[in-house]
Amino acid sequence: MSHPTTFWHRLPDGRVQCDVCPRECRLREGQRGFCFVRACEGGEVVLTTYGRSSGFCVDPIEKKPLNHFLPGTPVLSFGTAGCNLGCKFCQNWDISKSRELDTLADTASPEAIAETAARLGCRSVAFTYNDPVIFLEYAVDTARACHALGLKAVAVTAGYVSPGAREGLFSHMDAANVDLKAFTDDFYEKICAGRLAPVLETLEYLVHETDVWVEVTTLLIPGLNDSDRELRAESEWLVERLGPDVPLHFTAFHPDWKLQDRPPTPPETLTRARTIALEVGLRYVYTGNIHDPEGQTTYCHACGAALVERDWYELGAWHLVDGRCERCGEPCAGVFEERPGTWGSRRLPVRVAA
User: Distance from first CA to last CA of the chain, Å, rounded?
Assistant: First the structure.
C-alpha cells in the first residue's frame, strides 16, 4: 500500500523530487523512481511497498555479515522489492530488481514483525535482501517497534543515501553492514550505475557521528575490483578515515544476473585481500562465502589469541571476558554479551501474521 514519505520536495515545473538518495529522481504524477518503489501519487512522493515483504527468515547474525555484533544470535531478516543501485552482479536480483509488486507475498505491520522476532527468540531484526534506504519509512517504524520490545535493528545497506535521509534512517539503527562495492568511481559508474563518494560519506557519518555498530563488506569480482592496488587503497582509506577497529569482510563472487561472464572468486584472492588489509593496519578482517576457519575467526589484535572461532556461521571456542581478550585483557571492538548465542547456521523461513 502507498504510504506518505518525508524526504522530497516540489519543483517549480510541477514535478516532485525524491531526496532519499543521490539520484534525486524528478517525477511527474504516476511516475516511479529508479528504485521503482517510491512514486509520485497525488502530487507527493509515496512509498508503495510499506507493510509488504518478499519474505521473512531467521538467520544467524553472522550471515549479514556481522561478526562483532551479538555473535551467535538469531536475527529475523526481511526485505521488500526494488533497489536504488543497478549492480550487474546482484545476488538478490529477483527481489531487488523486481518490477512486480507480486514479489511481495507477505504482508506485515512493524508491530507484527517485532512481536514475531521476539516470540522466536531473535535478538534483532535485519532490513536486508534489498536496501532499507528505499523502504526507509517501513524500516524506521519497524525499528521503533523492535526497540519497544528490547530488540535491536540492523541495516544491511549499500549506503547510497542522501544526508537528510541518512540521519533519518540510521538514527533508529543499532548496527549496519555497509556494502562497499569497490573503491573506484569507474566500477560504481559502469557496474552499479552509481557513485562512490556518497557511500564513503555514509561510512564516515556512521562511524564518527552515530553510535551505530558498523562493519563493511566488499564482494571481490575477478578482474574488476580485486587488484592489489585497489585492495590496498580501500584498506588504507578505512584505517585512516574510519579507524582500525571497523571489521572488513571480503566475500566471494559467484556469476549471477547480468555478470555471468566472470569466474567465481578463487579462495586465494580472498586470502590475499585479507593479508593486504591486515598489513595496512585493519585489526579485524574476514573472508566470506568460502570455507576458511582461519579467515573467519576473530583474533586479539594485541596478542594474537583466537577470541571467537568460526567456521562459516558456526561458532567454536569463545575466549572473550567482558568484551576483552581472555589471555591479555585487551578490549575487542564490538557489541558482545557474556556468552555467545547458540543459533548456529540454521535458516528458518517464517510467516508473519499481518
Answer: 13
One domain for residues 147 and 272: yes
**DSSP code, position 178:** E
- State the Cα angle at 181 between 96 and 178, rounded to 5°: 75
| Domain that includes residue 17, residue range | 3-47
Report pTM: 0.95
Residues 127 and 250 in one domain: yes
Cα–Cα nearest to 5, from 134, 111, 128: 134
Give the integer Cα–Cα distance in Å for 335 and 348: 24
Three-state DSSP class for residue 75 = strand
User: Do the Cβ atoms of 67 and 286 come closer than 8 Å?
Assistant: yes
Residues 6+ apart with CB under 8 A from 196: 182, 183, 184, 185, 187, 188
**Model confidence pLDDT, tens digit, residues 51-65:** 998 889 999 999 999
Q: How far apart are CA 288 and CA 31, in angstroms?
A: 39
- pLDDT of 94 reads 53
* Co-location of 110 and 32 in the same domain: no
Task: Indicate the number of domains in the chain.
Answer: 2
The pLDDT tens digits for 81-102 are 899 998 888 776 455 454 544 4
Residue ranges of the chain with per-residue pLDDT less than 50 = 93, 96, 98, 100-103
